[in-house]
Amino acid sequence: MPHVAVVGGGLAGIRAALTCADAGARVTLLEARPRLGGATYSTRLGGLDVDNGQHVFLRCCDAYRALLARLDVEDRVFLQPRLDVPVLAPGGRVHRLRRHRLPAPAHLLPSVLGFGHLPLGARLHAALTAGRLKALDRSDPRSDETSFAAWLTRQGESALAIERFWDLLVVATLNVSSERASLAQAAMVYQTGLLGDAPAADIGWSRVPLSQLHGEPAAVALEKAGVRTLVRAAVRAIETEEDLAVRIDGERLAADAVILAAPHEAAADLLPRAAGVDRGGLRALGRSPIVNLHVVFGRPVLDMPLAAGIDTPLQWMFDRSESAGLEPGRYVVVSLSAADRWVGCSREALRRVFLPAFEALLPTSCGAGVESFHVTCERAATFAAVPGTGRLRPGPRTALPGLFLAGAWTDTGWPATMEGAVRSGAAAARAALSDAGLRALAEAA
Question: Cα separation of 354 and 332, whole Å?
């Protein structure tokens, strides 16, 4: 029975370990932190279970949804029956982006044409640009060397349209603005999520704290699958002198295959030269932060499950009252993507900016009182999906026999999302199983 060592207990590592174990391999999962779940977890702050970030998925995220099923937690998420995003602006203006009962891509046309946050001419132009974006060949290397905003400008899109319409999705999914985003990456998001199958962009999110959705159920599933899981087990090196092995403090663990599912900067530090991976290229993927605000109001202020904001520092807002056992509309999480300007700001400084922004966007919050205001920050939430990123992302195989790569930063075809992470774990597992002599099982995995 081949032995597979999986380095990293995030979604990529969890998927890789379960896939290998389900195929009959002996698996050891090594995680440096005291918990599983990687970049998706919850913590206790001021008597409240808060997630480190407001993670969402789409109906088209087949690999991630399959992992939820494998963990037996499908009942712990909510998935919109139909895409519906209220877009709010100060002064009470609300226009919705929703899916209509029309075949794709016309299913969004009524919402685009009715998007009153833009002048009518800009709405008509956005619909034409969407058609061009759907036809764009994102596999052309030139598309990865171009910024999305530069391409939009060449199509005649105005700065106002880019800010109020195109950035709504790009900032939230790529964690960079259209000005900085790779055209290829942005096109993938729009082509797969919004311009493909009509139901693809229906939005889902966890109804429970993230540790109860990923890390804790994964620990149970891994144990049932026979995986040896070690937490607080930081891998110091991957050794290749005699046989393939990982070095942990005080222990050398030999393996027939190693799946390195660590963050890209950590992977660059661990990869042996013989792997033939451009470690400088991995470091050049950079990082982009996400800041989340967790605000509990004294009374309900948000009468919708989610909303997006324009002309405001608030971006995407979610009612997470259910996960905290509170009355609907009281616990609002604000996800601030591409949040470089907010990293390092004190909680009081953020309160001074965002509480007035709430009052301007949600009049119901005026005089509601704030019972708690917490901030979580992931400085390296994702790699930076800027032009040139595509050529820096390696596939699951390396030049070193038995060593494979997984992580949302690998070349999955997806941006740095939970779906991309899970896909990468499955791809690395299939490659490892195939090379370990379990080809039939690899093909079935």
Answer: 12
Q: Record the tokens describing residue 228, joined without a space.
A: 């040896």
> 382, 397, 427: which is the final residue of a domain?
382
What is the per-residue pLDDT across 149-168, written as a single tens digit (0 to 9) for each? 999 999 999 999 999 999 99
From CA 378, how far away is CA 145, in angstroms rounded?
A: 27
Bridge partners of 360? Answer: none
Task: Note whether 318 and 433 are same-domain residues.
Answer: no
User: Residue 51's domain is classified under what CATH number?
Assistant: 3.90.660.10
What is the end-to-end Cα distance of the chain in Å, rounded?
Answer: 17
So what's the pLDDT on residue 440? Answer: 47
What pLDDT is attached to residue 445? 54
* DSSP, res 298: S
Are residues 169 and 51 both part of a single domain? no
Burial class (CB in 10 A: 0-12, 13-18, 19+), 101: exposed
- Among 176, 199, 222, the domain boundary falls at 199
One domain for residues 345 and 319 = yes
Integer angstrom CA distances of residue 375 from 188, 198, 208, 323, 332 = 31, 35, 19, 17, 12
DSSP secondary structure, 175-192, as one string: SS-TTTSBHHHHHHHIII
Tens of pLDDT, residues 320-357? 999 999 999 999 999 999 999 999 999 999 999 999 99
The type of residue at 259 is I
Q: Do the beta carbons of residue 381 and residue 390 sit within 8 Å?
A: no
Full DSSP string of 92-125: TEEEEEE--SS-TTGGGHHHHHT-TTS-HHHHHH
What pairs with residue 297 in β-bridges? Answer: 370
* Stated pTM of the model: 0.95
- Give me the residues paired with residue 5 across strands: 28, 258
Task: Output phi, psi for 319, to 5 deg.
Answer: -85, 105
For 293, the domain range is 42-97+202-209+287-382
Counting Cα atoms < 13 Å in the Cβ hemisphere of 192 gives 20
